[in-house]
Every structure is written in C-alpha cells, then in structure tokens.
Amino acid sequence: MTDTLQVPGAAPCGIEVRALRSGYPGRPVVEDVDLTVPAGQVVAIVGPNGCGKSTLLRTIARLHRPDAGTVHVGGEDIWEMNRRRAAHRVALLPQSPRAPEAVTVAGLVRYGRHPRQGLLRQWSREDERAVRGALEATGTTGLAGERLDRLSGGQRQRCWLAMVLAQHTPVVLLDEPTSALDLGHAVDVMELVREIAGTGRTVVMVQHDLAAAARYADILVAMKDGRVVARGVPAETVDEALVKEVYALDADILSAPGDGSPVVVPRGGRPATT
Amino acid sequence: MTAPHSPHDAVPPEGTADVTPPDSTVLRTGTLSWLLPRRSALAALLLIPVLVTVIALAVTASSTGMGLSETIGGLLGTGDPGTVMIVRDFRLPRIAVGLLVGAALGIAGCLTQTLAGNRLATPDLLGVDDGAAAAVVAAAAGSTTGMVGAWWLGPIGAVVAAVIVVLCAGGAGGAGYRVLVAGIGVSTFIGAVSDLIMSRQNDNTAGGVFLWAVGSLNGRDWSAGTPLALVLLLLVPLSLAVGHRLQLLRFDDDMAASLGVDLRRLRAGALVLAVALAGTAVGVGGPIAFVALAAPILAQRLAGPTRVPVTGSALTGAVLIAAADALGRVAAPVELPVGVVTSVLGGPFLLWVLFRPDRATGKA
Predict the structure, then answer these.
(1) Is residue A268 part of a domain?
(2) Domain region containing A61
(3) Among residues 203-242 of chain A, which lie with CB inside 8 Å of chain B?
(4) In chain B, whose CA is at the least distance from the CA of A172?
(5) Where would I find the beta strands (DSSP E) of B116-157?
(6) Cβ contacts of A136 on chain B, cutoff 8 Å
(7) How many CB atoms lie within 10 A of CB B46?
(8) ipTM for the whole complex
C-alpha cells in the first residue's frame, strides 16, 4: 500500500531540539524547549493560540533562526546546512499556503522537486517518479490536470500534501494541516499522515484539535507560553489536569470506544482562576 | 495503493498521470535533463521575424523622403556619401541603441513585476528614473555647454536612488510592496530636486535636458551603444539564471524558503539586476515610459501564465522601442521623441490592462 510513499535511498531522520530559545527581538516566543523525536514517529504539538507552536515548527524548518540552542535533524545541525540541503531533509507545509496563479495540480506537485533540480538537471526520471508517486499516494492522480484554485478545500489540502511528499524528505512538518477542513476531510488527511509515517518519515505537526492529535500522534507535546509543559504517549498525557493547565478549561476526559484514545469534553464555564 | 483513501471527494478515475510539464519537451542524456518550454520557445521564434520586420521598417523610415533604393544604397555603402552617412552613422546605431534599451527595460520590468508580485510594478517606482534624471540634469546644469552628454551618470544616479529607496524600505530582502511605497516617496523628492535645478537654468540647457527627460534616442550613436551592449552581455545571462528561480516567489515566503530558495539573496540579486538594467537604459535613452510595464505583460501572455518571461520581455521591449522610435520619426511633421510615442500608446494600454476582464477567473 505504501510503496508509492517510499523515499528511495533516504535514511530515516530523527529530530533533536536542545535548549531552544526562538522568537523576535525582546520577545522570546519559544523558551527553553528540549524535544527528541525518534525517526518514523508522528508528533503533535498542541497548545493555545500564541503559545509558540508555529514558531517552534518554523525554527525546526530552518525558517526562523533560533536565539539560542540547536536543532539537529538526522544528527546534523540544520543551521550548518545551506537552504537547499535543508530542503533535502525537511519539508514544510505552512498553514493556508498561497499557490502560484493558475497552477495545475501536477504543476504544484512538480514544485516539490525544486530542491533537487538545477541547470543541468531540470526534469529527471526520479522527478517524474516522485511526482507520480506523490499523486498516487494522496489519491490525486485523477486531478493532475485540474487547476488547483478550482478544487474543494479537502482536495486542495491533499494536493499540497502531495507536493510536500514529492520533495522526498525524511522529515515532514505540517502546520495545522486540518484546520480549514470539515470532519470527513480532516480524518482523510490524518489517515494520510499515518501512512506517511508508516514509510519511515518523521512527522511533526501543529494540531489545534486535541482529539485528532491524541488519536493520530505517537507523541503528544503540549505547550504553553513558549514552554513544553507535557509530553508523552497521548493516552497517558491527556488528562484533566493538563487540559486545565494548558487551556484553562475544566473538562472530562473520556475514552473513545474504538481505540481508547482520549476524548476531551469541556464542561463549559471557565474556572475561576487559571 | 488502489483506492484513494478519501470517501469524501468524488475523484475522477485514476490512471497513470502524465506528470511532465505539458508545455515542455524533455531532453535527457545520462543523468542530465533539460526542459524545453515549447510555448515560450515558439513565442520567441515568432518575435524574431517581427523584430526583423520592425528593424527593416525602422531602417527605411525616413522623414526626409529618402526612398527605399536610396536607403539600401546607403546601407550597402554604394549611395552618395551623404546618404551613406545618414543611414550608417545615424540610423543604424540609433536603431541598435533602441533595441538594446528596449531589451534592458523589458527585462528590468519583468524582474520588478515578479519581485513585487504585481504587474503594475516598474523600475521607475524604485526611483530609478528620477535618480538617473537628477544625475543627468545636475551634470548638464554644471557643464559649461549645458549639453546632455554624460549618459553614464544615469546608471550611477539610478543606483544611488535605488539604494536610498531600499534603505528606506528596510533592506533588499524585504517584502516587495514596502520597496515600492518607499520608491514612490523617494522618487517624488528626487524629481522635485531635478525640477528645482531645471528651473534655474537658461532656456537652452532646459530644452536639451527636457528632450532627454521625456525619453529620446535622437543622436545616440555607437559611443553609447557599445557600452550598453557590453552591460547587457553581462546582465542578460544573470537575469535568465535569476528568472528561473523567481517563479518560486509566487508561493508565500515560508513555502518558497522550505523549497530551498534563499529569499534574501534571490530578492536582492533580482533587485540589483533590475536597477542596473533600467538605470543603464534610462541613462542612454532617458526615462522612456511604459516599455518596462508593457513588455513583460505582453511577453507573459505569449509565454503562458506559469513562466517568468525574461527572454520574451527582452524581445518585446526591443520591438516596442524600435517601432515607437521609427513611428516618431515619420508620424508627425516634427520628429517626436520615442518617449512621447510610448506615452501616447502606453496610456490606453495601461487602461486595457486595468479593465480587461481576466478570462481565466472572470474577475475584472
């Protein structure tokens, strides 16, 4: 099933974040963060708006230079690599990305090959295989010739994932990949994320939806005010105390009938003190 | 995988998708591969006969009633010495300079529009035109003859103005529109300084400077053409190399950066090229209006929406200037400067660009 997602010749890469401080002058957004992600795992970062989730993701993606600390991907410091080498190792899907005007689905996915292309290598057989494989893996082969802006939100998001997959990186970072999707499409995308991890890729995603994060991630990382306040296996990490600490919310934690993953049911009404 | 895992979308039946760019032919040997963009190549091939025709018309266009056979005689050096001199020493270099100026403005416009992500962005919004003009005006005012001769001050003035604009905008790697807003402010100020200098000159100097300031190729010969050609020889290949990467700017910055593009370097490089090309062109030909705006838009239509049409913009710019200059020489009883012709034709073109319904989206 997952052969179309396989990255040929790429060794799996884990991620090591050490004593990271990152943010803007005079205002650190991420502080004192340590994070180890074993290769092939799905990590979901959760937390309230403005807690530093996206900044942490952008720092791992080498888009934001840390003020202190290091980010190693596959044992190498990401800031010791140049932009292009980093793009061979880490792919990022930003939240609500902007596509070139009038681009087709195949055209978009082809851009995923840009880090591997050059003046003498403009369209290799490997590029061709990678794009075809990414389309197949995301179920968008039949849409290849369509214009991206004419598709539904759910279809569009699968096309963006195809582009990220075509980049053939051992690490995939997703910033709220399901935030604009209805429940059905959100589940589709999360199932796809599991398949991506099943090929040995490491996935780190920022997830607004605590239930989805708990259900699909191997490791849940909860952040508040720029710091990691909890991390671990979702079923053991998500409890009433955590929800109260992170979201300042009283909630009951139920166990999903299917897989026992935690389901958060807010009781309504904020507690008197946070 | 056989079935798409989405039960939530009706996905057309699967097949083996043809993922090769549909408008390109793939050339491969060993591990090397190239894409030949058929549509752009065809557009360029179509523009070349147009260019040759315009050159032929420009060579033969005459305000003095010189006939075709006389012109050919002048070209071949077999006519009378006066005709030979007019054709070979005046018309040919003037046409060559026009073509080079047009190509430079076309590429500069293409780079600027792509950088700003706005097809109405032109190099003069970076302060290039007013900077070049101020330098040339100041030199003419300071010289004893009051003549416009020091064309090479144009690019220097252009670069100085562009540096001021970029500093005001907070660096070359920043967002395109900040640079443009800063450019409008700085241009207005520099333009006022030029006007102030002009207002203190005698009519003779002011007249000569005015002709340059509307954009004119009158009297341009090889002394301006040769350095211009050398500058283009250096900058055009660099622009072609940058142009390919510029298409990544059509994504947002995070996406482009995660695809391996060093955005600060790319933006700064493209900006420097645009300013150098436009500054040189303006120094030689004056601030000829609308070519930097129109050439890339026309080239984009020829090359298709997904490309950054550097070559097409160069060819289109060359055609536009050569045609406008030839038209200016014969259309009126008095010779019209090329800048006046492009302005007269460019105004309606701009309105067409603004109000033409976009066929693809139906938006105005």
Answers:
(1) no
(2) 3-242
(3) none
(4) B258
(5) none
(6) 1, 14
(7) 13
(8) 0.89
Burial pattern B190-228, b for ≥16 Cβ within 10 A else e, equals bbeebeebbeebeeebbebbbbbbbbbbbebeeebbebb
Residues of B numbered 332-361 whose beta carbons fall under 8 angstroms of chain A's beta carbons: which are they?
360-361
Residue pLDDT, tens place only, A210-263: 989 999 999 999 999 999 999 999 988 988 999 999 988 888 888 888 888 888
Q: Which of A88-92, B144-148, B231-235 has the lowest mean pLDDT?
A: B144-148
Q: What is the pLDDT of residues B237-296, one digit of tens each?
A: 999 989 888 989 889 899 999 999 998 889 889 988 999 999 889 888 888 889 999 999
Instruction: State how many domains chain A has.
Output: 1
What's the CA gap between B20 and A110, in Å, rounded? 8
**Model confidence over A126-176: pLDDT tens digits?**
999 999 999 999 999 999 999 999 999 989 999 999 999 999 999 999 999
Selected residue with higher pLDDT from A3 and B30: B30
Closest approach of chain A CAs to the CA of B4, in angstroms? 4
* A270 pLDDT above the threshold of 80: no
Q: Which of residues 22-51 of A touch B (CB under 8 A)?
A: none
Contacts of A9 (CB under 8 A, 6+ apart): none
Instruction: Sort out which chain B residues have CB atoms less than 8 A from A140's CB and list them.
Output: 4, 11
Rounded Cα gap, residues B348 and A155, in angstroms: 41
Q: Which of B139, B206, B193 is nearest to B161 (CA)?
A: B193
- Please answer yes or no on whether B31 and A87 come within 8 Å at the CB atom: no
In Å, how far is B356's CA from the nearest CA of chain A? 17
Cβ <8 Å between B248 and A114: yes
Contact assessment for residue A91 and residue A80, using Cβ atoms and an 8 Å cutoff: no
Structure token digits, residue B83: 């005709």
Say if A4 is an interface residue toward chain B (CB within 8 Å). Answer: yes
In a domain, A247, yes or no: no
CB-nearest partner of B306 from A103, A119, A167: A103
Classify domain B46-55+66-349 at the CATH topology level: ABC transporter involved in vitamin B12 uptake, BtuC (1.10.3470)
Q: State the greatest distance between any 2 C-alpha atoms of chain B, in Å, as a whole number.
A: 84
What is the tens place of the pLDDT at every residue in B75-104?
A: 787 878 888 888 888 888 899 999 999 999
Residue A123 domain-assigned (yes or no) = yes
Is A254 within a domain? Answer: no
Mutating which of A111, A172, A216 best tests the B interface, going by the most B Cβ atoms within 10 A? A111
**For the whole model, what pTM was predicted?**
0.85
Q: What is the CATH number of the domain that holds A234?
A: 3.40.50.300
Q: Residue ranges per domain, chain B?
A: 46-55+66-349
